[in-house]
Amino acid sequence: MLDVAVLPGEYAVCRLAAGTALPYALSSGLSGTDVVTVSWTSDGISVICPADRVPAHAVVETVWRCLRVTAPVELASTGNLAALVDPLAEARVSVLTFSTFDTDYLLVPAVRLAEGTAALQRAGHRVTG
pTM above the 0.85 mark? Predict the structure, then answer.
């Protein structure tokens, strides 16, 4: 069983053209619960951020909610992410994931948040927020 917190606010999944400079606003003044992640590939830059921090000129898919595994996740541990994604897949809730050094994050469409959290609870996880 994992403890999962629903972070406040809405999140956006964005795409920027390769070589685009990232705006300072993505990293400045983050609150204690805000999270921003950036991935670079030769095809472009992907950004997940609070909806109010979307970079100009980004292609945006908005209105996601972000869930965070509250306890630190050991890098060598296995199965944690699958234990969260599998119940969401069974409930037919779309999910995007990313991990940091300390923990795992999941994004679900805002319109499916109640269904997603219910699926996680049925699987034995504790969901707060």
Answer: yes
